[in-house]
Amino acid sequence: MEAIDLKYVALLRGINVGGKNLISKEELRQSFEELGFKNVRTYIQSGNILFRSHKANADKLAIRIEKGLSACFSYTARAAVLSYEQYKSAVQSAPDGWGENEKQKHNALFTLLDITPEAVLVELPTPKKYIENVTVGLNVVFWSVSKEDLTKTTFMKLPTVPVYQKVTVRNHNTVLKILELFNEI
């Protein structure tokens, strides 16, 4: 009996940001194929890789991907890996209206292996409720902030807190596009 290939997404942390850890989409695609994954598809330059694998454990895949990319590209790779079902459930756990208000910036903070969304929330600066909303979802923290007051939000302080190293951030457009792209792999 042949193993069934399951759909996954790897959300890489810290590549192609601020001129650091520059890795092309083609290099990523090739490295994922060399790791034995199938139907590899990348989306934009920020480390979104959709693929298929017969392995059924996203955590073990994350460890394998991190080790493989770290060796290939000489940086400390970190990745949140979710199966299609996990990703779909994460997106569906968004608060009502998330991503809809154009006067707000909507982000999803996907957690890496060593932390839960609840633990991330404990370590984050306390949001200013009048200009930002933070909600815990499945494998993700949703954060919506007022664009008008963006420079006043605690979200802007996120890169300065240690827990930032344990999440990978995607905007709502990317989150929704990845869900759509699962149909193409």
What is the number of domains? 2
Q: What's the architecture of the largest domain in CATH terms?
A: 2-Layer Sandwich
H and E string: EHEEHEHEHEEEH
Number of helices: 5
CATH fold assignment of the largest domain:
Alpha-Beta Plaits
Let me know the average pLDDT.
93
The helix/strand class is: alpha+beta
Order of neighbouring strands in the sheet with most strands: 2-3-1-4
- CATH homology group of the largest domain: bacterial protein sp0830 like
Ends distance: 22 Å
Approximately what portion of the residues adopt beta-strand conformation?
25-35%
Q: Give the CATH level 1 class of the largest domain.
A: Alpha Beta
Shape: globular
How many strand units? Answer: 8
Spans where pLDDT lies below 50 across 5 or more residues:
none
Helix content: 25-40%
Please state the CA-atom Rg, rounded to the nearest Å.
16 Å
Question: Overview of this structure, please?
Answer:
The chain has two domains: 81 residues, Alpha-Beta Plaits; 96 residues, Alpha-Beta Plaits. Helices cover 28% and strands 27% of the residues. The protein has five helices and eight strands. It has a four-stranded antiparallel beta sheet with strand order 2-3-1-4. Strands 6-7-5-8 form a four-stranded antiparallel beta sheet. The longest helix is centred in the middle third of the chain and has 16 residues. The radius of gyration is 16 Å and the shape is globular. The mean pLDDT is 93.
